[in-house]
Each structure stands twice: as C-alpha cells, then as structure tokens.
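Weekly structure sync, notes
Attendees: PL (lead), two postdocs, one rotation student
Agenda item 3: pending single-chain targets
PL asked that the sequence for the first pending target be pasted directly into the notes so everyone works from the same version. It is reproduced below exactly as submitted, 268 residues in total.
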Amino acid sequence: MKAKRFFSIFLSLVMILAFSACGKVDNTVVTDGSTSMEKVIGALGESFKNENSDISFTYNPTGSGAGIKAVAEGTCDIGLSSRYLKDEEKAKGLSETILAFDGIAIIVNPENPVSDLSLETLAKVFTGEIKNWSEIGGADAEIVLIGREAASGTRDGFESIVGVEGICQYRNELTSTGDVVTTIAGNPNAIGYASLASLKDNVKALSVNGVSPLEETVKDGSYAIQRPFVLVTLTETPLSKTAQKFFDYALSEEAREVIYATGVVPAN
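Predicted structure, written out during the meeting:
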C-alpha cells in the first residue's frame, strides 16, 4: 500500500512539473518570440486580461527564431514569428496562423535629407555597393548600416524582399527592434529597418519606390516591404483550454480594432 501511495504522489508531482515546464498551467498563457510583435501582442494580451482577470498572460521578447524553437521544445504555448515558417520547421510539426501584416520601414535619422529610395538602390546600399550618402542625395558621409541578428524575422523579411539574403554589410547586428530604433536615432549617418508598428518620432521612415510605409499602403499591398505576423503552434498537440481561448480571441472580430490601433493590419 505504501509503495502504491508513494508512486501515486510521485506521478502527480511529475505531471505538475511537466505542465509547468511547458507553460500550460490552466490559467496561464505563455507567448514567446518576435520583438517586432511586442506592441500588438502586448495590446492583445492586455485586452484579453481585461475580460479574463483570472488568467495570467506573459510575453517573452526573444526573437522569431527563439519563439519558434520554444514552441517546438514545449516551453511556451504560442510562438510569435515575424516571418513565414520554413518548410523544415513545418516538417517538424509546427503550424502557422497569420495574425496580421506589418510594413518593414526603412529608417534614418531625422536630420538625413534623403526621403525616398528604390528597392534597387536599397540593395546597393545594404550590400555596400553604395557607401556614401552623397551618392543618393545625402550629405558627404559614410553610410552606417544597422541590421538585426540572423534569427530575426524582420531581417529575414527585409533581406528576402530586397534580394540581399546573407550579403548585407552591416556595421552592427542588434537583437531587438528597439535597439535598432535607438541606434539610428543617435547616428545621423545610420540606416536600418524596423517594424512600422514600432516607429517613434526620433527616426524618419523613408518611402520606397515612391510609396510611404502606412497602414493603408500595407493593406492595399502598394508598399513593397511588408511581412506577416504569425502565431506558431504545434500541429499535433492541442493548446490548453486557456491558450486556445486567447488564440481564438486574437483572431476574432472583437480583436480587429485592438490590432488596428497598434499600426498593423489584421489578416482576417
């Protein structure tokens, strides 16, 4: 009897620890991933908690690659990615659901007189073919290229659209959208890219091919550099009841206005 009782208690403890490790406690929703999605996920999480005060909602801004990995390893409920899943990621049992679309803004210091660049010119700038601002209508100063780390969904989106995958000559590769914005705000010769939803008044967004990065130009597809905001889940493993409730809310009609208010365009 004692052995059976001990085994029963041991099994219960193992199950509790397992659920805790996976972030799937009944009243908890754990999200992890893209730093570019911080504003929209923060707003959705806050709105969701206002209607579900008994639920704990957390967001870990680790980057798209880390968020995808966290889902695969079972350490979060929902991963956040600012790029589409790759075929090999889907083959590992991951599914993507598009939450919204976001423009990737090309940003410079407000003192920079340049206001528009073509996709072709951007490619030449970021690969180092064009090295001085004076070559494209700016001051006689070296162009300082600021990018994101290799696992960033923003970097993946920018490089794939502009056609410069793996060949950009970055001066700095930073780990968050906020770091990119802050660095460019402090350097009149810097240029980089950041989520449209994350822009502040301390940087200037350039138009691309004559089209400004705005909510309406992302929505109608006329702004060329845009990417998806994706919710990543396990294909074969259902979400916990609480995580499913948040997932359904994020995709609901009710959440559309919350998403729009953060500067991105709902997919539904």
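Discussion points:
- The chain has two domains: 23-101+228-266, 102-226.
- Confidence is low (pLDDT under 50) at residues 6-24.
Action: rotation student to compare against the earlier draft before next sync.
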